[in-house]
Every structure is written in C-alpha cells, then in structure tokens.
Amino acid sequence: GESVGLHLPTLSVQEGDNSIINCAYSNSASDYFIWYKQESGKGPQFIIDIRSNMDKRQGQRVTVLLNKTVKHLSLQIAATQPGDSAVYFCAETHKAQGAQKLVFGQGTRLTINP
Amino acid sequence: GAGVSQSPRYKVAKRGQDVALRCDPISGHVSLFWYQQALGQGPEFLTYFQNEAQLDKSGLPSDRFFAERPEGSVSTLKIQRTQQEDSAVYLCASSLGSGGYYGYTFGSGTRLTVV
Question: Do A89 and B44 touch (CB under 8 A)?
Fold first, then answer.
C-alpha cells in the first residue's frame, strides 16, 4: 500500500554539526509534506512543511528539500543542539484525502553527542 | 485552552475491559483527528471529525473502536473489550480549518496498556 518511510532509523551527530534526515514516499499524488519532532512523552510538534510546487523551504535552522522525481524528502538541521534530540517523522497527504489524513513514516531518532 | 488536552495520560486496562479516552481540542478548531501510535512507530490515522460530523473513520481497526464528538468540541475515543494489541499511545490533534492545508496541533496522548 501507500507508505512514507525513512532510510535510517537512528542518527547520531556531534553538537554543532549539521544533521540531515531523509524520507522516501511512494504516493506520487502526495502534494503536501510535513516534518514533525517528537520528544519522549509528548505529541508530534510541527517543524516545517512544504507543498509539491516547491523544492526547498527554509525556516529557523531547518531546511526541507523535496525531490519529486525520486520521491524523496529531507530535513536539514543546522548547528545541531542538545535540544534537537528527538524522533523526527515525515508525513504526507494529498488533495484526494482533503489534505486531512496524514500518513507518517516510521521515524528517525536523532541523538546529539556533546 | 492553549493546547490540545488529553486525559487520562496513562491508562492500564485488563483485557476485555472497556476504556474511554478524552480529547479537548483547541477552542474554535473545526477539525479533530485521532491517531494511534504503536511503540517505535509513526502515528497511524484512525478517524477525523469536522465539527460534530465524523467524515472519515477508515482507520478504525475494528468495530470495537468508536469515536464521537457530539457538540463539535470535546471528543471521546472508546475501545470496547480491549485486547493486548490495542496497547499504544492514542494521539488527538485539532486544526483550525478544514479542507485545506492547515497545521495540526497534537496533544501529548494517552498511553494505553492492556494487561
């Protein structure tokens, strides 16, 4: 079935380095993508989103890249900080679902080494 | 309130027991969603309300799962005759609008453990 998945389940980086978290999606009809951060015991927290008519979007210390040709999404976090330690999920939806139902990937756990 | 509130935070149920999970969305939010998150997995969609209307319940895993939002605000997810496979975190999210690309705000979830 349709799914959104991640290449790596865990990622460990040094504090201050840049982090890149990847996500592959299989539904070519997907037109809206969101990255969420989830800390232990909390619900997913919105980080950044991107629509399919864009290939790059920047926020504060975060950048999302979308490659529709290979159906790939990435989240770049600049100058990683201890507070960035969490599980990161990509999620997708598309107009046929009324942009309501999100399909989440499995998640990548990001660990920051001091 | 300032955020989405879910109660209880933790629930331990004996197999076969019925449970009810409550969600208080952000005031004025039209859309409300329930997701199920198994340990180590991403959230999976259960059901969606627009005001009091349940527009999509395609994700409910069985007829033991039932959700309602009678007045278009607070929602309750009920699970009858709980089974061990129902153990998960149940997340509620709300959104200001409907039918478009509106951001969700998630609650912290209810962790259900069936023993």
Answer: no
